[in-house]
Specification:
The chain is α/β, with parallel strands linked by helices. Helices cover about 25% and strands about 30% of the residues. It starts with a helix and ends with a strand. GO terms for molecular function: metallocarboxypeptidase activity; zinc ion binding.
Length: about 375
């Protein structure tokens, strides 16, 4: 598929009922009726708090692809893109039936509905499900494992979101989308099924480079068998980690949503049309490893206690009245020459204070500081 065709499909099929960062079962359940003529919707289990975990099946092809999103409840961008993708599939005019004839997709749109509801990474028992792959102490972990064993996928898509701190390498380029072909042993051996995952990631990277040049990264592949991706990879199923990251001024992750959609369709198009052998895996190693070079705001050259320093701010995500709000928090007060800000302000040697006129300290939270006797808003409007 041509990139312009994928972008046109997204524009036509973006699910308008899903937006911003707070996505729960209540948001996706009304969408099932529209999908029901083409998508098999079933309840495959319950969360700790007895909220339903849904499974969606579409397609009848021999190549089986398992996708799960919101394993971490506050990582919803990939969920939005799932429903954009499903809208595209159920429209005959999209001409995507070749994918459904070649592939069968099984999708868990929200694996951690309790975490989604409270907008937390962990589940209701305070467990990170992505560290529970071996012990499977949580009902959500058991649901995913049972689905994996029953569906017997040929590919796994492990769908996540990442913070605003990540860079593509140690550069001033954002890692707006990141991937990983997880390791399957302590030696991080480039095994045949890792090569298959790497080949598919290379295809997605080629598509994304046309839109966000030099803004794609990969994660360190240090092995941890307690992680779901490493576990599935170790069982010889090519597994791909997707990480939806930050695009400038896109704190609602709507631009990134489209980039994830592009990744979905570019990869599914390739899998549908190709017997992926892993022979074309080398381009994966051209993608830079993620650095942590960004802060949300940097105020440079500010005078604090008579010394010229830089102030680094990270936004804290808080659920307020069923909407995610961003609260600026002072993360660093030092020379930040190795860091870049999504927003940068030059204080030009002027003294800076907290919002009450006191000394600015690490951990201080407020939407503004005082610079040159004026309130300086840290959040972009």
């Amino acid at each position: 598929m041509q990139l312009q065709d994928i972008k046109a499909l997204f524009k036509r099929h973006k699910e308008d009922q899903l937006s911003h960062r707070y996505i729960t079962n209540k948001d996706i359940e009304p969408l099932f009726e529209k999908l029901s003529k083409h998508v098999q919707v079933e309840t495959i289990g319950k969360s700790v708090l007895s909220n339903p975990i849904y499974g969606l099946k579409i397609g009848n092809g021999k190549k089986r692809i398992l996708m799960w999103s919101q394993m971490h409840g506050n990582e919803s961008t990939t969920t939005k893109a799932i429903f954009d993708l499903l809208n595209s599939f159920i429209d005959a005019n999209s001409e995507l039936n070749f994918i459904l004839e070649s592939c069968t997709l099984y999708i868990i749109p929200i694996l951690n509905p309790d975490g989604a509801l409270s907008y937390t990474r962990i589940n209701a028992n305070q467990v990170d499900l992505n560290r529970d792959a071996q012990n499977r102490t949580q009902p959500e972990s058991i649901v995913l494992r049972n689905t994996f064993e029953n569906f017997k996928p040929h590919f796994c898509y492990n769908l996540h979101g990442q913070r605003t701190i990540f860079s593509a390498g140690n550069t001033n380029k954002l890692a707006t989308v990141s991937f990983l072909a997880p390791a399957q042993d302590e030696a991080c051996t480039v095994t045949p099924n890792r090569k298959v995952a790497m080949e598919v990631i290379g295809v997605m990277n080629n598509a994304l480079q046309q839109i966000i040049s030099n803004q794609v990264g990969v994660y360190d592949d240090a092995f941890n068998l307690n992680c779901v991706g490493d576990t599935f990879q170790s069982e010889n199923v090519p597994t791909i980690l997707f990480e939806a990251g930050h695009f400038p001024n896109d704190y609602g992750r709507e631009v990134t949503r489209e980039l994830i959609y592009v990744s979905y369709l570019a990869s599914l198009d390739y899998i549908a049309k190709t017997e992926v052998t892993g022979n074309k895996y080398e381009s994966y190693f051209n993608i830079p490893e993620n650095g942590k070079c960004f802060l949300d705001v940097i105020i440079r050259n500010a005078k604090i206690d008579g010394i010229l320093l830089d102030v680094g701010v990270l936004f804290q995500e808080r659920l307020v009245n069923n909407r995610v709000e961003f609260i600026p928090k002072i993360e660093k007060i030092e020379k930040l020459n190795a860091f870049y800000g999504h927003k940068e302000i030059d204080a030009k040697g002027v003294a800076i204070y907290n919002g009450e006129g006191g000394v600015l300290e690490i951990g201080y939270e407020n939407v503004f500081v005082i610079l040159n006797n004026e309130k300086l808003l840290l959040l972009s409007k």
